[in-house]
Amino acid sequence: MGLASAWFIGVAAAAALGAGGWFVGEHARRRVLEPYTPELADSPVEVPWQARGARGLELLVAHDRITLSGGRGPFRLVRPMVALSGVGAVEQVMVARRTTLPVPGVGELRVTVTPGPAVRITVPPGEWIVPTDHGREIARLVARRKELAGVD
Fold first, then answer.
1. DSSP class of residue 115?
2. Are 145 and 132 in contact (CB under 8 A)?
3. pLDDT band of 121, cuts 50, 70, 90
4. Phi/psi of residue 69, each to 5°?
5. Which string of b and e fits 119-129 if b means at least 16 CB within 10 Å?
6. Tell me: domain 41-149, CATH 2.30.29.30, correct?
7. pLDDT number for residue 29
8. Is the pLDDT of residue 92 over 70?
């Protein structure tokens, strides 16, 4: 066996281990965080919510901030963040038609909102509208975490 063959086998094994680790991590994340339970609100765990119909877009609710994680592929390059103290109203809304909206303050991130339920989050300098079937749960989670953080 030559040096090139050994190198190729090493690279292939590393790639296989990396892919296997990613799949195990994703499976574990889904088992622990989905479906969402109210007990997670009192934990320090950052809770992800996948946007409906917007591949690669997640709303992440941490104990001290909310983040939109967007982008294409495995790399989430655009991550606007707002401290919980800056978050205003969080409410479930109904969207009547498909539209693409820019994320205020982040010119390169646009969200395609599909008809159906969504969550509207008031943040400076405007609002985020994220298509999701879990708007009420997100509103409760943010409200509880704001309460725990002592934020009005």
1. S
2. no
3. very high
4. -110, 110
5. bbbebeeebbb
6. yes
7. 55
8. yes
Cα distance between residue 28 and residue 41, in whole Å: 19
> What whole-number distance in Å separates Cα of residue 92 and Cα of residue 139?
8
pTM score, two decimals?
Answer: 0.72
| pLDDT for 108 beyond 60 | yes
Domain positions in the chain are 1-33, 41-149
Mean pLDDT of the chain: 82
| Residue 18, C-beta contacts closer than 8 angstroms, at least 6 positions apart | none
Burial (CB < 10 A; 0-12, 13-18, 19+), residue 19, is: exposed
E-strand ranges in 56-138 read 58-61, 65-69, 81-83, 90-95, 99-103, 106-113, 116-123, 126-131
Q: In this structure, what are the phi and psi dihedrals at residue 16, rounded to the nearest 5 degrees?
A: -65, -40
Q: Is the backbone peptide bond immediately before 102 cis, with ω within 30 degrees of 0?
A: no
- The three-class DSSP label of residue 23 is helix
Q: Going by C-beta distance under 8 Å and a sequence separation of 6 or more, which residues neighbour residue 66? A: 59, 60, 81, 82, 84, 87, 121, 123, 142
